[in-house]
Amino acid sequence: MRELTYYVAVSLDGRIAGPGDDFSAFPVEGDHIDMILRDWRDTLPAPGLQALGLAADHTRFDAVVMGWGTYAAGLPHGVVDPYPHLDQVVATRAHADHELPDGVRATADPLAEVRRMKAQEGVGIWLCGGGLLAASLADEIDRLVLKVNPVVLGKGPALLDGSYVPRFFERSAVTAYDSGVVVAEYERSW
Predict the structure, then answer these.
(1) What's residue 93's pLDDT?
(2) CATH number for the domain including 59?
(3) What angle do CA 156, 138, 3 make, to 5 degrees?
(4) What is the model's pTM?
(5) Residue 36 lies in domain
(6) Residue 164 lies in a domain
């Protein structure tokens, strides 16, 4: 059975982006980037892999689930198939009729889709974002991997943007980088 891992960049105040899905405050240089390229290569979009001369290694993930906003971030740049190395699922009701390329499928029921995917054999499922989707899948999240960035944003989408329901996790690893980024890993306490 595959695990669902919410691997995401987050600010010190729990925001996964600024207003308007602005990611520009998160550092894109520093020693934490070497860790991403080495250990989390599956999470790089195809244009990034190509530009760096890298290939996905499928050591972490073979599938990704993302909300429409996360998927649509690449559309203005002509990126319609961001992770062709992964089984891609876009959770959307409003854009369910949007034409998607082969290898990218839409679902109006992300909870049922994630449960179906978790029951299949495979490496792992990456929950890519956003906060509303993460909240709807909160009971299915097995692992949190938070790239905590040394910035306070004040506004923007929350890590989980949902109802108050405490869910408990146990810390499994914490790594601090000279860039100021701290990667905190947690496993679900069932």
Answers:
(1) 83
(2) 3.40.430.10
(3) 120
(4) 0.95
(5) 4-158
(6) no
